[in-house]
């Protein structure tokens, strides 16, 4: 199928149907394929939930026509939701911790959204609390709340996952994806388990993040630079279901940064640090399948590259590791 070969009525129709592209630095016997989500109109995977969640909430009557959405976000969800809100005649307010990239805030504002920043030290939990305070003060305002709303998972179960499986004719041995809200991975995992319960499901997080503790593993709680994935407050994430995950793999900032640079120079991909982390983990999983350490029902690994490096140029993402560390 050729996606978007007909004239389209709205930019919302360009969300999804992104290409699945082979990652070449992986064993020949176990190819790795990445869903390149920067092909979405807001240039990230989050356009999918922006459209899906707002349309579903309007359909169900959970959101009044002409109402306001107030959403805590690291930025990409804000951009995706701002596109959808604009086309669906809704107002949008986004609550963003200060540390996230300035490009994202400018793009949300360009799309007509109002931006409220919260202190970096309060993290995402601080942004979530603030979003509920703002919604309580305004009329017809709701918090879609990507961190707890099952519609986030459903968006990926209904779109991302079938696209991946169709492109590979169902021959998927493992799915590997970074976890922020965990919506992407949970949608993929639910779909994968329905196709074949033996498909190996891997969550990817930065070293220093603590999703690993939800599977009984250890993690030292410390800061990390990779943007868009990880948590310091795993209990607060309501979507991550440990029963759907075989393992959590942690990737260092240094390895993710080296990989996003390699992906640009060797494979022509302009991707952010969470894609670098996903790629490192997916390649390790492919090697483990190749070496017989992981038993998978097919010799292939599917992963997701969530966004583009253009979003992080202000953070010197293509500088040395030290330059990037200093600006991130
Ligand atoms: N990478 C980036 C750059 C993101 O913005 C996000 C969303 N926070 C993710 C990965 C993780 O996606 P999810 O929230 O579906 O787990």
UniProtKB/TrEMBL annotation:
Transmembrane segments: none
UniProt GO BP: cysteine biosynthetic process
Highest taxon in the source lineage: Archaea
Annotated Tryptophan synthase beta chain-like PALP domain residues: 14-305
PROSITE patterns, alphabetized: CYS_SYNTHASE (PS00901)
InterPro entries per UniProt: Cys_Synth/Cystath_Beta-Synth, P-phosphate_BS, TrpB-like_PALP, TrpB-like_PALP_sf
Keyword flag Cytoplasm: no
UniProt cofactor(s): pyridoxal 5'-phosphate
UniProt keyword annotation of Phosphoprotein present: no
Annotated keywords: Amino-acid biosynthesis, Cysteine biosynthesis, Pyridoxal phosphate, Transferase
Molecular function GO labels: transferase activity
Homology family: Belongs to the cysteine synthase/cystathionine beta-synthase family.
Protein's name in the database: PLP-dependent cysteine synthase family protein
Organism name: Halosimplex aquaticum
